[in-house]
Amino acid sequence: MARTVTDIIPPSRRRQMEPMSMREESLPPQRPIAPKRPRRGFPYGTAIIALLIVAGSVAALFVFSGAKVEVTPKTFVASISSDFTATQGGGDLPFEIVTVEKTGTKSVKAESTVTANDSAQGTITIYNTQAAAQALITNTRFESPEGLIFRIHAPVTVPAGSTENPGTVSATVFADQGGEKYNIPAASFTLPGLKGGKSFTQVYAKSTGAMTGGFSGSRPSVGEATRQAQKGPLESALKEELQKSLGAQMKEGYILIPSSVTTSFTPVPDTAGENNQVVIAEKGIMTAVIFPNEALAKAIAFKVVPMYAGEPVTLSNPEGLTFAPSASSTPASGKPYTFNLSGSTTLVWTIDTAKIGGAVAGKKRESAEAILMGFPEIDKAILVLRPFFATTFPADPAKITIDVVTPAKEEKK
Asked: How far is Cα 44 from Cα 50, in angstroms, rounded to an integer?
C-alpha cells in the first residue's frame, strides 16, 4: 500500500498543519464557565432595622403603659312633694338670701310740663348686732348725718346677729320731703325711734349708692298712655339685667331654684333729659333664696332614696323643682324657714377620686373590681391596665388616673 506524506508526519505536527476549521470540528465540546458568585457577608442593615423595630415596640409599651379607672357615678331620679325646714347661715340645711337692684331708664319726647315735688329714694342695708331679730314698722325713720330723714314704706325684720357678724336686710327708703337736697351720696343712717335704748347703737343702716329722684319745680312730662307703653319693654330689659347680676353673685357650691326668685318693680320719678326729653325710670329688685347644693340634695335624698345613708350627693337639674315658701314663714336669720319642694330632679352621687385611687392601688384587676363594687356611689367602673399583659395596679395612687364620667341623660332610678 502506498504511503502518503501525511503518513510520515508525526501526529503532533500533523495536528498543527490541519486547517483551523478542521481543528475546531475535532475539538471536544467545552462546558460553559459559570460566573463567579460574590461572597455574601452578614446582613447588618436588616439586623439593625429588626433591632430598631423591637426597641421601638418595647419603648411603646412603656410610653403607653398606665392604669386608669373610668367611674360613672350612681344617679337617682327623684319625684318629690315634701316640706323642708332651713336656717339662714347654719344647720343641716342652711340657706342665704341674695338681693340685687338695678334701675332702668328710657328717654321719650316730652308731651307737657308739670309742677312736681318728688321725693328722693334709694336702697339701704339695715344691720342688727343684737342676739334677737329686730322688727321695724312701716314709716320707720332713718336719719343721715346731715339730719335728713328717710322712711321705709313697708315693714321689715332684721335678722339677729352679732358685732362680728350682724344680721342684715335690704330695704328701699324714701325722703321725708321732696327736693333735690335729698339726692345725697352713699351715707350711714341711725334710727331715731330707737334712741334711748341699747338698740340705738346696735341697729343701724348704710347705703352703698346715692339717693336719687328728688326734685321740686316745673319739669317736662309725658302722659300716662306713653308711660304705660314704655313700662313693659323697660321691665323686660331690666329683668334680664337683674338675672345676670343675680347669677354673678351666686356663691360657689350653691344652687338656685328658679321659682324661689321674686322680682318687684317700683316707679322712679321722671327726670328732665336733654333736647326736651323725659327720662322714664323704674327700679327693679330681685331676691332669691339659695342653698348649698350638697345640703339640699342630702335633704331630698333622705326623703326619697331607699336605704340612703348620707353619702355626698348633688342636684344636677334644680330647674325641675318648684319652690313654695310657707305663708307663715319668713327667711329670718336664726329662725326656721319652712318651704315646700315639688317636682322632679336628679340626684348624682359624689365621687372622691382620691378614695378610688387609694382603694385600687397595688391590687390585681379582679380584686380592684370587687372592691369598687362595694362603693355605693359608683354605678359603673371600667378598669384599664396597659400594657396588655399588666395585671396589677401601681402601688402609688398618683400613678393611677381616675376619670369621672358624666352620667347619661337616661339616669337610672
From this structure: 10
* Spatial contact of 340 and 326, defined as CB atoms under 8 Å apart: yes
CA distance 130 to 199: 8
Cell numbers given for 134: 329686730
**CATH architecture classification, 116-216:** Beta Barrel (2.40)
Residues sharing a CB contact under 8 Å with residue 364, sequence separation 6 or more, in sequence order: 391, 392, 393
Query: Burial of 240 by CB count in 10 Å (0-12 exposed, 13-18 middle, 19+ buried)?
Result: exposed
CA distances from 407 to 70, 108, 132, 351, 357 (A): 12, 52, 46, 12, 20
- Give the start-to-end residue ranges of the domains of the chain: 116-216
Pairing relation of β-strands 94-109 and 75-88? Answer: parallel
Cell of 366: 379582679
pTM: 0.71
Query: What are 127-152's pLDDT values in tens digits?
Result: 999 999 899 999 999 999 999 999 99
Q: DSSP assignment of 125-156, as one string?
A: EEEE-SSS-EEE-TT-EEE-TT--EEEESS-E
Residue 183's CB is within 10 A of a number of other CB atoms, namely 16
pLDDT of residue 273: 87
CA distance 72 to 100: 38
Dihedral of alpha carbons 223, 104, 332, 205, sign: negative
Residue owning grid cell 359608683: 378
CA–CA gap between residue 219 and residue 272 (Å, rounded) = 6
